[in-house]
Each structure stands twice: as structure tokens, then as C-alpha cells.
Amino acid sequence: MTIKRLKVTVDGKAYDVQVEMTDELAGAPISAPPPPIAFAPAPAVAPAPVSAPAAAPKAPASGAGDVISPLAGKLVSVEVKVDQEVKEGAQVATVEAMKMNTYIYAPKAGKVASIQVNPGDAVDEGSVILRIA
Fold first, then answer.
1. Over the chain, what is the mean pLDDT?
2. Tens digit of pLDDT for each residue in 31-89?
3. Would you give the DSSP letter of residue 11?
4. 116 belongs to a structural domain
5. pLDDT at 28 over 70
6. CA dist., res. 10 & res. 33, Å (int)
7. Measuring CA to CA, how many Å separate 31 from each of 12, 34, 35, 132, 133?
8. Are 104 and 70 in contact, with CB atoms under 8 Å apart?
9. 32 found inside a domain
10. Nearest alpha-carbon partner for 101 in 132, 79, 127, 128
11. Cα 9 vs. chain centroid, distance in angstroms?
């Protein structure tokens, strides 16, 4: 091991330091620091044109008697049966999303023609839950 005395300049202030050189570094020449790298300024880039936001996916086409889910979630219950008469505004189903229940009401009076999903099924926003004829 060899001890070398070096003069180091940091921010314009000179320091005398002692450096202990290990055997593998003792014979290696001390090189000058590399020259500073010159960076060219970044070329000016025009901002990318802003396009109109993509249109939200449309809900499946539904008929006048279709009862659709107003949000994505899990169908908790269906309060009606096929061939049951319902009045406009009667509660026909319940959907749960984010631990909150949303009650779904009949858009018109009529007879339940079909039920498209079962309790426990996942439903998407705009999906048909049941049809009223």
C-alpha cells in the first residue's frame, strides 16, 4: 500500500489530501478528469395537436320497454317475474356498485316479457336487465 499526497481543487478552493493507494492502484497512472461535455440545446418541438377525446362507447340499442342498468356493477336482485304486470315507476331490480345499491325502476307500464340477467351477474352500464312489453 502506498500513500500519496494530492492537491484537489473544489469550487475554486485548493485542498491538500492524502490518498491511500491499494496495491492494484499503486502502479496505475492518475489521469486528468475528462473534459466537460458540451450539450447542444434541445431543438424546439411544436406541441402535438390535441385531438378531440374519443367518444364514450354507446350503450347497446334498447327498445322502449327495455330496462337498462344505469351503471356497471353486480345485479343484486330482480323484484319481478316473467309475465308479471308492472306499473310505470315500479322498482324492478337492484344493482350494487362500490357497496351502494341503486334501485332500477320500470320506464313504462306493461308485462315483463323477459329477464336477461340473474342475481349475482355482473352488468355493464347500458346493458339490458329485463324487457317490458
1. 83
2. 677 777 776 676 776 676 766 665 444 444 567 789 999 999 999 999 999 999 999 99
3. T
4. yes
5. no
6. 13
7. 20, 9, 12, 87, 90
8. yes
9. no
10. 79
11. 51
Domain membership flag for residue 8: no
The DSSP output letter for 72 is S
Please state, for a pLDDT cut of 70, what percent of the chain lies above it. 77
Range of the domain at 105: 66-132
Residues in the chain: 133
In this prediction, residue 56 carries a pLDDT of 45
Question: SS3 for 41?
Answer: coil
Query: Looking at the domain assignment, is residue 33 inside a domain?
Result: no
- 45-75 in b/e form (b: 16+ CB < 10 A) is eeeeeeeeeeeeeeeeeeeebbbbbeeebeb
Look at the chain and report how many structural domains it folds into: 1
The CATH number that applies at residue 78 is: 2.40.50.100
